[in-house]
Design brief:
The protein has 256 residues and is mostly helical. The chain is built from eight helices and three strands; from the N terminus they run H-E-E-H-H-H-H-E-H-H-H.
């Protein structure tokens, strides 16, 4: 392999996080949409109850979404707070967040479904609107658009949960079942980049006659061998053996 075929140092690490975080950003946007839908529905009027007490003229009581479904506003705040968790956690933590996101959306959907499918429930509307007991409910007019808005938020929450589960599963599969060809290519790239850095440093030392500054960490050893970093280089050596590369062999063709 020639140096022209190798990506510039740091190019691969910059591109990988961008592609891996894109689904999480999409999930965060869906969660923000869910929070907006729940908060908006909590501020809308879900029902209008007409009642009278026999002493005063007939009155109309508006039942807001926060009264009909009290957990809409708390759920909206939870989803907003959960965006930070979505962008930071990994693995099983991300799966747990995904399950909570889906559960919150389903929980919010029950009152909306009951309003759309169950028709008018004057007793529940009177209780939700805190109408005094002295009033007699004459009729109740329910409104379906706020409930539909909640269901839209539920759909966004479920889709966000599915995206997060796929991200968690994909990260585990990609790290555990990486193909030998992919591992070999990644390892060759790391070893080549390490060798190029050390060759440039050696050329600079030969030109200036200086030795590396005190405290400078050398990433490689002599003759293209992995350096002394106990974690990274031990992993590179074992991966090299697994993929058929001799980590003790010189990377410089002139030295072979």
């Amino acid at each position: 392999m020639t140096s022209a075929e190798q990506p510039a140092d740091g190019a691969a690490p910059k591109s990988r996080p961008k592609s891996s975080r894109r689904p999480q950003i999409i999930a965060a946007i869906l969660m923000a949409a869910t929070a907006a839908a729940f908060w908006g529905a909590s501020r809308l009027t879900w029902a209008t109850v007409s009642a009278e007490d026999g002493l005063s003229p007939q009155r109309a009581f508006d039942v807001k979404g926060s009264d009909w479904s009290p957990w809409l506003t708390p759920l909206a705040l939870v989803y907003l707070a959960g965006i930070a968790a979505v962008l930071s956690v990994r693995g099983w933590g991300l799966r747990l967040v995904a399950l909570l996101v889906a559960a919150g959306g389903v929980l919010a959907a029950f009152p909306a479904i009951s309003l759309i499918t169950g028709g008018t429930d004057s007793e529940y509307a009177a209780d939700a609107g805190d109408i005094p007991d002295r009033y007699i409910v004459l009729y109740t007019d329910t409104k379906w658009p706020p409930a539909a808005l909640v269901l839209l938020g539920t759909v966004c929450a479920v889709v966000a949960a599915v995206v997060l589960l796929r991200v968690a599963k994909g990260a585990r599969m990609s790290s555990k079942y990486k193909t030998p060809a992919a591992r070999r290519e990644e390892l060759e790239t790391e070893i080549f980049a390490d060798y190029e850095r050390r060759k440039k440093a050696a050329a600079a030392d030969a030109t200036t006659g200086d030795t590396p500054a005190t405290g400078e960490v050398e990433t490689g050893g002599k003759d293209g061998r992995p350096g002394d970093d106990p974690d990274a280089n031990e992993r590179m050596m074992w991966d090299a053996l697994d993929t058929g590369i001799d980590p003790t062999e010189s990377s410089d063709p002139d030295e072979r």
